[in-house]
Amino acid sequence: MNHKEFCSLLKKNNLDFCTGVPCSILSSIITYMSGSAEFTYIPATREDEAIGIAVGAYMGGKRPVVLMQNSGLGTSINALTSLVLLYQTPLLLIISWRGYQGKDAPEHLFMGKYMIDFLKIMKIPAEILEKDVLEEQLMRASRIMEEQKIPVALILKKGVIE
Amino acid sequence: MRRYDAVKAIAECLRDEYVFACNGLISRELFAIKDRPRNFYMLGSMGLASAIGLGASLAKPNEKIVILAGDGNILMSLGTLATIGKISPKNLIHIVLDNECHESTGGQETASSITRLDIIAASSGFANSKYADSTDMLKEVLTKFLRFEGPSFVHVKVDKKRVEVPRVSLAPPEIKERFMKEFLKR
Lengths: 162, 186
Fold this sequence. Notes:
The structure holds two protein chains of two kinds.
Chain A: H1 3-12, E1 17-20, H2 27-35, E2 40-43, H3 47-59, E3 64-69, H4 71-85, E4 91-96, H5 109-121, E5 126-128, H6 134-148, E6 151-156
Parallel strand pairs in A: 1-2, 1-3, 3-4, 4-6, 5-6
Helix pairs in contact in A: 1-2, 3-4
Chain B: H1 3-13, E1 18-21, H2 25-34, E2 39-41, H3 49-59, E3 65-70, H4 71-76, H5 78-87, E4 92-98, E5 101-102, E6 108-109, H6 117-123, E7 128-132, H7 135-145, E8 152-157, H8 172-183
Parallel strand pairs in B: 1-2, 1-3, 3-4, 4-8, 7-8
Antiparallel strand pairs in B: 5-6
């Protein structure tokens, strides 16, 4: 799947208010959103700031998306627990998986190993995106976040979206 | 000027604006002085009041958004001032009640005795930025900024004197639901 197709899936689910901090794996998606009239993309200075922006936008009627590298999950733990989970806020997280299977630059290896566990501990449902079933995964995430008023994470490995 | 009196002065200027109050005593004082459905009390997530207010201002460009933060909150996320300046929402007013300490946790010093927050805001791209150290000045500046196109910033110097106020007695989901019911009306 290419980034345009992925973005039109987001749009189809009204997930068009986006904010985040870039990652090379997310680069084509964020560049596309930033230049598209169909999306609002707000560049944040930190991932927890992006989560704050997303929660504010949700209260104003948007279905927000936060895009980040998994390193940003570390920065975001307090925002997720003491804001998003505490106030029962739906939110879609798109998190790139650096350090997958221990094959990456050294700074990505610990978070690459622990990311899934961090999400599990916080009881944030996570789906590892796969090319063939990506549309179903997105629809499911979109439904769960709305019904349960919780954050849901989609994990993006290198090469799944061009 | 006590911070309690600054919050009271701000509350007197409010009409139909939506307010995002930061964690700690600022939310508690606003709750005690003028609780209203249009107040969002951020109980946790220290540092994120500015970001939440920014998100709300973008989702609802025709409503006025007021952010009430302390120096501890804003120093934790000075980057958000840069984000606001760059995006430049016209409907956003950011107030900082600066007592140069973390009063909620026992008065530990912050850096704002040195940092000129009003100048940081102005140089980050806020359209208006003013300093106030009396309730009269604060009311005058805020009344003006509520009419002006923003983003606007008010740096309010307050004393370290603490007034005892109760905790916010609403459950967090209730704060959000009550706020959204008003915010999504039009």
